[in-house]
Amino acid sequence: MRYNGDRRPETGDRKSVLAAVMILFSCFRTSASRLRFPFLLLLFSLFLSSCAKSTLDDPHQIVIWHQMRPDERVVLKQVLDKYMEANPGLKITALYKETEELRSGFQIAAIGGAGPDIVFGPSDDVGPFQVMQIILPLDMLFSKEYLSQFNPKALVYSHGHLYQIADRIGNHLMLLYNKALLPTPPKTMDQLIAFGEKFTRAPNYYGLVWNYTEPYFFIPFLTGYGGWVMDSLGNPTLDTPAMVSALKFMKALRDRYRIIPKSCDYETADALFKEGKAAMIINGPWSFGDYKKAGINFGVTRIPYITETGRWPAPMVSPLGYLVNASVPEWKIPEVIKLVKFLLSPEVQLEFTSHFDTIPTRIKLYDDPAVRDNPIVEQSEYQMEVGRPMPIIPELRAVWDAMRPSYQAVLGGTESSEQAAKQMQKSAIEKIKEMNE
Amino acid sequence: MRDSTANPVGTSNPSMSFWDSEKLSPNMFAYLLMIPAAVVMFGVVVYPFFYNVVLSFSNMSLRHFKDWHIIGCRQYAQVFSGKIFYTVFFKTIVWTFVNIFFHVTIGVSLALILNKRLFGKAAIRTLLILPWAIPQVIVALTWRSMFNYEYGAINLFIAHFLGMSPVEWLGKPLEAFSACIITNVWLGFPFMMTIALGGLQSIPQELYEAADIDGASAWQKFWSVTVPLLKPVMIPAITLGIIWTFNNVNIIWLVSNGGEPSDQTHILVSYVYKAAFNLYRYGYAAALSMVIFAILLTFSLVFLKRTRASEAVY
Amino acid sequence: MNSKFKIRNSKLRILNLVLYFLLIGFTLAVLYPIVNVLSISLRPADRLLSTSLKIIPEGATFDAYRTLFTQTPFLLWFWNSSLIAAAVTITGVALASTAGYAFSRFNFYGKKSAMVGLLVTQMFPPTMLLLPMYIMLLKLHLINSYFGIIIIYTSTALPFCVWQMKGYYDTIPFSLEESARIDGSTRWGAFRRIVLPLAAPALVITALFSFMTAWAEYVVAAQVLQDTSLFTLPLGLKQFEASMSTQWGLYAAGSLIVSIPAVALFLFLSRWLISGLTLGSVKG
Prior knowledge:
The complex is a heterotrimer. In chain A, helix 1 (12-29) packs antiparallel against helix 2, helix 9 (241-255) packs across helix 17 (417-435) and helix 16 runs antiparallel to helix 17. In chain A, 45% of the residues lie in helices and 14% in strands. By secondary structure, chain A is an alpha/beta fold. Chain B is mostly helical. Chain B has one domain (83-306): MetI-like fold (Orthogonal Bundle). Chain B has helices spanning 26-56, 74-81, 83-114, 121-128, 130-133, 136-146, 153-161, 173-200, 205-213, 218-246, 250-255, 268-278, 282-307. In chain B, helix 6 crosses helix 8 (173-200). Chain B is flat. Chains B and C meet through helix 1, helix 3, helix 4, helix 5 and helix 6 of B and helix 1, helix 3, helix 4, helix 5 and helix 6 of C.
């Protein structure tokens, strides 16, 4: 595990600062009459040594901002090292950016016409970035033939143009169960509740845990009752009977059946599952590595279907892939595309799948034994079959922001499910209007 | 130390005459002392400030990200017409004053105690500044886990030692807000303590002795000697403490996980952050920032005038 | 006389006992969360939260610390942060001690507005300053450079430092410099050899504050530094984070180590913060 992505550490800047520190220090120790020359010298030397332009204009450097987990970064680093070996003189800097920070940081950089060359992340950001015109349409840069080698779910279009090509699909929620506590997972919610009631002994053991404070984790329940966040035109559809029933069901799991903890954010759920105190957890593919490391023998399956409605809960499905900054200078685009193509190549995808059980996007890989015979990938695909693609429009952001307060108010007991559904809808419409003004 | 013969700044070198403090008028000397600081401040602050002034009159947003233009005062009208502004403003004031009150009282009391002759005070003094020294993110998250309903140390303490029923810290608006304040008080008092410790050194012992002769009680000595002489050092710290706390987005964000529950724990700046980067309303966020700026400016001017901080004590 | 002394003495003892209790209570309250951080750093499998209250977790391990030093560029980050913090501290002390003196001792045109002006710079919500600051640095070609960052940090720390130096100078009687001047000292000499040593506690606070400003800053650094070899400690620590998959062990271990230099600096400087050289001893 090495995080240092650089090959040619540029120490000039550091040295000049060190020199400056020493000069300044000595300045302060001598009297003011001698202050002038070192001070000017310092300013001058610092200025000269540290002038640095945006990395976008540097032909020898490509910067990637990504949202990969620490264990994935190790593989990314190996892959990039290989590429740099094959392309001497090129330096690739891979920087991790947390979700919020990637969004805000990229916007700020884009206003100044700078930022990374490539962004890797889920498709959430394609909507807003496309509207802001800060990412590059990719249609012209890849041939039809090349694109036909990908699972269509991996090609993220917005307003008729291609903006993102994914190297993995999924990022969806599913049911993980601890095989030591629960040999066969439940198929229906009734079974799940029956098991949970037997297993739960608060405050130590719970049948089921998950981060239920976050509406993203609520989507499977909403869809299990036949609801969805917005219609095909992007208008929110939150004030529906499905929303009300789903909210009531969630509350019942906690307050009537008492099979989930009284309060449970991501860290609580994660700790309980890692400590073997929760039999099941609703979580996504990002958590597999951690649970393997914690020594939990876990299985993966679909979230059980809602007995009441006979529907399978449908988590949101989104691809993860590469975007290109619209400010990349024209002469540099071929170089950047070459790297993107390398990162999307079957070999690299296979590398990630073999380590992290991700679902690749190259069609030809689906017959590869490493993919075909992987039980986690198989179950993950089984869950994905019933999933629904995440809408690629900026309005989704407003919908999340509108859902969160009322959703939490229902759990806190300060709003009824009916009130919450109404309030969400109202607030979503308001927020979308504000956003689009 | 006051030996005049050991004066290295002689007037013997004529080429340095410009820098010779003797040949300057007092005012020139003063300007000279200030210029370096002024240049740095001016350069870094002026451009960003005016950039925001322009933005606040513009319609920069998701749909007008690169092609924004000036639209006048509409963003300001939006700020003031929203009901949310007033409730959040009220919360911000509560947040700021409760925090600063505890920072200063705890900080100054500890400084007073640590200024006495006590065994082991050097060690305790060092331990007490730890909250200032450790990176905020990790302790804020640690506090968050200490507020956990079932497993958190605080609820266990309440249940075991105080015999009260556990509090749902992070699930209810008022409790979550208190949790944020407790965390921030913990993080902030060492700073005030350090300032007060420094300030106490400037109080001559003779003043206390004189007060003793006059038969003053400890309480009287505190109000007539300590407070007035601590003031010049504490007032700037308090003024800035208020400004920083007013604009402190980190702790609220981390402890309440971005305003949970139900966006009830927001203060004005976290609204600015949300408006700008989550909902892409740059114009609106800039206008709201200008309003925050105006509030703080008005407050500081009144506060400084009241406390006469820019004037000398002697 | 003797009995009176005794009563006073026993009263003092009780007072001291109460003070000790208070101090120890506070120290425990300060230590508990930090001990928790220590506990996270020893926990295997990266758990931020634990359902047990044990301080030494089950299966405690120093792996995080080993990994930190052998497999991550932690020392490089440490070095980078030290450089930046040292530069900011020294410029901060140099500029604030002089500017503060000017504000305290001279009455010149624009003094009040300049003082308020310094405060004004702190009032704008920093989140919105990030964007124009970035654009400014971009135009000056100072992205990916320490120079830009040092200037920004210094300007963040200066307003407080100047005000606080000015406040402290205000408590030093003017007569001290006057007598030095009568003895033939220059204006600068009087400042440097009489006033500055007396202001040692304030200089300590200025130094500490400037250091902390630079040492733990994250937001600006994240926007400006785009090269892993230039990373500072907060940026490095952030690399252990990931949405829903943070390496909490490394993060906690790193955070604890990050706080050591700050505490060490305080320890080193507290000699002058609580200096024996109080005004009383000089004034006599």
